[in-house]
Amino acid sequence: MESSESLAIVGKWRDFTTGELLLTVPQPWGIITIAVAGIWVSWSVKYMKKLLGNLVLWVHLHRHKSRPRPRNNGDDTEESLLLGDRSHTSKRKDAQPLAIILKEKSGVRDLFAESLTSKTLDLADKGWLLLFTLLISALASSMIVGGYFSTRVKLDGPARIASERCGLWVFDGEKRSDAATRAGLLDLEKEERAAQFAEDCYGKSSSIARRCNVLYRPKLPVRPVKYTNDCPFQNKICRQNQTVTFSTPLIDASDIGIHSPMTPKFRRSTTCTPLSMEYPYIQNFTEHGTTTYYYYYGEKSGEDPPVNYTYKTIGDPWDRLAPVYDVFAYASNADDSDDAVWRPRAELTVPKYSTLTILFISSLRILYKERSDDPIFPANETWAFPGDPKPWFRNSDPRARPLACINTIEVCSPDETMCWNVNAPSNSGIPDETAEFTLLYAALFKTDIYFSIAKRQGRGLQAQKVVAQYFSETLGDDPWVREVESLVTTSLARTQINAWSVASGEDSVHEGKDGYISLTDKYGDLCGKFKYNPLGYHSLRFIPFVVMLCSVPALLLLSLEWKPIEKRVIKILGKAKGVFDDLLLKLKVRLAGSRQESNDEELDQSPQNSPSPPNAAADESSAGDVSAPDNDTDDDTTAATQGQNQSVSPPGANQASVPETSDISDKEEIVWKPLLWMGLLKLLVLFLCLIVKVIWWMIRGIPKVVRYLKSLLPTSFGGG
């Protein structure tokens, strides 16, 4: 399995496992984006410094303005009326040296030098300037933090796999044919791939290889091994009652890469124990000096011809002169109705729909460093090697060692309310024909530990990897438990690889050839529902990416001065109001004109010689007199009024209205100007106050409405 074999879907999507919005892009755009982001973030520091400097300037000027000097009554009062308040002028003048530095200096080095060597600042202002310098330094340091977080925007994955043909294809042709042989080699390849993945990704001492990171999760969780001194079978068929169980917690299907908002879950358990080697389970017959051992742990009805034993070995494996292990595996079917190759004997009872795997392990000509009483890998007999003073040990028992394992795989609904065995024909009504369940079932296909070693046989053992020529390193304590753990992790790795294989359509090349059939076509389209970490693609966290892009423009806008913007907004609103008033005036004129036309029509329809009402002429004469005002009289009155107003003006008013003078010129005086963010904050506060007022008016109006509604109700019923 190589990540380059499949492509990824480019674009925005949501990872339902983490809930993050991601943007998948091909290389090198991910790296280019992060490089540009670092430069982009550095630009924002300039505007952040401007915002901070403006805020500090406001605090500084406001601090000086809010402390007026006390004045005495008498002459000072008269001076303030005539010449203005010299205390405020002095305060503004005292604030200017630091204000000029805050306005003109922005570099940390310049600010720090001014805070130490400036001759225009007093001690308090130097302290304030030093504090401001520290804030600017912290802000500059934040650029490093911002650069770090900009790199966190990019992920090496995940991405959705892009495939036009997805599904599971299996061989269903003639078993004794060339096509069946090729299918067996393909199964061997998948088994080898899963074993290598398990060794790289589930090993305790080895570091996680790059191939592990291709999948969404490098490995699936496994609980610590559980040791018990009981037998999971009947009639004392276990040897020494040594049992180990490896199990997983409930695993979400998204951990194997299934991409969906609602994913099912699964868990698996494997319980293994060495079997008894006593009669009647193992029997031997000697003929012509050759001993044959028969292992009666069930019959093989699928053999041609059928036999009543499970396995047989001939002679002593030590004499075969091969430094290897010999392994044969058999597995029971989950359903009794199936045509099983091997049917376990009655003592080997397993839970319903679980499967049983039995391994027969023989060590050939292998010498061990140390003695071992392991039930599967014994080394009990001393062997003197010529020229080596230290003794070696070998297995003196020619019989193969039987190891039986119970495999149980359960699938659960997304809400975990119901679970069922994956081999069960029905799941009690849970709809499991969706694409998510189909992908999970296909991923769990052929993942019993039987399929972890059936094709590799002896070379699939961990013990074989420490054999050099005829010598083996020490296997340590309980090597058979370590072998079981290796088979379990290989099964988990095959589950992960199966999910990738189905989603990528790896086996679609066999469609319609060599007896292969599809098991998933009837369950709909499975493409686009798998995520992994492919090479050649990057995923960006979409929301942080957008925030990062908008940070510089937003800071630029917020650092603009508010007053010019406010004037432009007011001007635009004034124009809009003028247009609205013009439209409203035109509408009123049209309405008045239509009314006048209707009145004229009514007058035209009235009788021409109708008698005039009494005193009509007198009223018209009076009206004419009233409508003609005396313009000369009005002008004289207005002039007199203006003269009176001027005569009552207090002495010295003209002198007081003259602008005050100060020692600070207009060019030198620094005046604080609000920025855009402060204006927006002010508008927000006003808007919230308006909402509160409206709510308050509504609350106050509710009792009045209630009283009005009560007044409409009749005071009594019945009677009459």
Global mean pLDDT: 79
* C-alpha geometry: elongated
**Which ranges are low-confidence, i.e. pLDDT below 50, for 5 or more consecutive residues?**
74-88, 609-667
Strand proportion: 15-25%
Termini separation comes to 95 Å
- Whole-number count of domains: 2
Largest sheet: 8 strands, antiparallel
Would you report the number of β strands?
Answer: 29
Gyration radius from CA atoms, angstroms: 47 Å
Number of helices: 14
| Category from helices, strands and their pairing | alpha+beta
Task: Give the helix level as a range of percent.
Answer: 40-55%
Summary keywords:
41% helix, 2 domains, 14 helices, 720 residues, alpha+beta
What does this structure look like?
With 720 residues, the chain is α+β, with helices and mostly antiparallel strands. It folds into 2 domains: 3-155, no CATH class; 169-532, no CATH class. Helix content is 41%, strand content 17%. The strands form 9 sheets. Strands 7, 8, 9, 10, 15, 17, 23 and 24 form an 8-stranded antiparallel sheet that branches. A hairpin with a 6-residue loop joins strand 23 (401-412) and strand 24 (419-421). The longest helix is centred in the last third of the chain and has 44 residues, at 562-605. The model is unreliable at 74-88 and 609-667 (pLDDT under 50). Residues 605-623 have a biased composition (Low complexity). Residues 65-90, 596-663 are annotated as: Disordered. Residues 642-662 have a biased composition (Polar residues). Keywords: Membrane, Transmembrane, Transmembrane helix. The chain crosses the membrane at residues 28-45, 128-149, 542-562, 675-699.
